[in-house]
Model the fold of this input.
Amino acid sequence: MKFGLLGAKLGHSLSPQIHQEVFRQMGITATYELIEVPGEKLAATVEELRKSYRGLNVTIPHKVAVMDSLDRIAPEAEAIGAVNTISFAGGKAEGFNTDYFGFARLLEHEDLVPTGKNVCVLGTGGASRAVLQCVRNMGAGQITVITRKTENAPEDIRSQYKVRTYEELRRLEGDLLVNCTPVGMYPAVDASPVDKAVMEHFGAAVDIIYNPGETRFMQLAKAQGKKAVNGLFMLVAQAVATDEIWLERKLDDALIADVTEKMRSLL
Done:
């Protein structure tokens, strides 16, 4: 069986190691490849890969655009407005969003369930959409989306959430600040989407970036004695959820923690 990850630039990805470890523990022989593709070639690439691949993951910046290339979209992905997993089964290409389940597992694992809490989410891309839907469904009391220019935020996000600029963020406060932007990702590890003054107004921080293992964003939170976690557990949890879809079987939850620890040693 052949699987792969579609994205624009994938040199930093841990996805092959994660899926291969899951396949190993399941006793399955399969390959998982990194497939870099520019936006203008996305549709043609998906059409070609459906001939020989069992499934694909999708990452920055294709999670929204890839939806136009699919035959069916699962309800949770439709509600989120982004796809990170494609299954080629029965001659059809169906899109799912396992980022949603991965982020929920992360919040539960880290005791950061946002029920009744004030949450600010940085970014409006595909990952942000999954996080927003997740915290909304988990009962967050207030959700604010932060973007550089509010007028550039997608209409559906502006209609469902409070959207503010980074300058306005300086006057906000909350329980949880979530970075869904690529700012601070390897190799630009000295960058952070916010500064110390902003972080002072939030109780905890989650960075969905997992490489480096501790981002500058996380360091700002920890320096103030606040809880800060990265996105590695989320990445593994969504990968396990993806494999459940591709292989049509339920996997043990303990697998997530086990694979996460194995991947942590690679960072």
